[in-house]
What we know:
Blueprint: E1 19-24, E2 29-34, E3 37-51, E4 57-59, E5 65-67, E6 71-74, H1 77-80, E7 90-91, E8 97-102, E9 107-129, E10 136-139, E11 142-145
Parallel strand pairs: 6-7
Antiparallel strand pairs: 1-2, 1-10, 3-4, 3-9, 5-6, 8-9, 10-11
Amino acid sequence: ITMADHSQKRLDEIKRGEVILTYHPEKKEVSTFAVQHLLKVEHERISVLHFDNDEPLRITPDHPVFSLEKGWVASDPAAANEYQHFQNVQLLEPGEALCFWNASAQTLKIRTLKKIAPLQKPTTTFAISGLPSGWGFFANGLLVAGEKAQNPGAAE
């Protein structure tokens, strides 16, 4: 996760009160957010996102990421649309231009998704919840949506 000081920290190591970098793609505004809630969830499926010459990124199929063409997208948009503060999440497809944070330049960069591969493997995941609607944060540089807490404090 990209922290407010532009350093990186593993999501499972972030503590309540630590400050992360956030971004609102429609407002084109960078800000910060003090983490209020962390969620720990078991998932049976993972989507592996592949980009040119980069290490693959793993994400849950229902977790929205931001596409320049479509707005918030997910490889399982029906599940993503069940989030309380998301509507009209579209299907994530190869060829999408996705937003990443360039920490050295402190600006956004765009990378094109080449392939999505499903992975059937039980995995423990962690998520940050409680961000205001429309805001996202950067996981492995990728702009991802925050989740609405269903059970605040579940991982605290």
